[in-house]
Amino acid sequence: DDGGGSDTSVVTDTRPKTKRPPLYKVLLLNDDYTPMEFVVAVLERFFGMSHAQAFEIMLTVHKKGVAVVGVFSHEIAETKVAQVMDFARRHQHPLQCTMEKE
Ligand code: NFA
To answer: Could you report the per-residue pLDDT of 39-75, keeping only the tens digit for each?
Structure first.
């Protein structure tokens, strides 16, 4: 290597690299059975959306099949997915929520 020496070989000096933790998209998936108003309630309850915002995102999922409903740290994303899946299961709706690395 060559860290300032004037002699041989490959330069390997590094700059301090600050690495940030990855972010995860939380996705909501369309299905044919979950009521629209239930999806709106989920988005209001777990993602802090206004009714208008929630209705808009619900319609996007309904029409396009999937939408990103938020971007979070791994731990927060996991918690959101678990909360939505549990809430849907308790109400016997097949609504699916997943996460993927951004
Ligand atoms: N497609 C569902 C219906 O017509 C509504 C829905 C929207 C479900 C978004 C899941 C996600 N009742």
So the answer is: 999 999 999 999 999 999 999 999 999 999 999 999 9
- pTM score: 0.86
Distance in Å, CA 35 to ligand 1 centroid:
6
CA pair distance 58, 63, nearest whole angstrom: 9
Q: Which atom of ligand 1 is found nearest the CA of 95?
A: 10
DSSP element (H, E) containing 72: strand 66-72
Q: Whose CA is nearest to atom 11 of ligand 1?
A: 30
Of ligand 1's listed atoms, the one at least distance from the Cα of 35 is 12
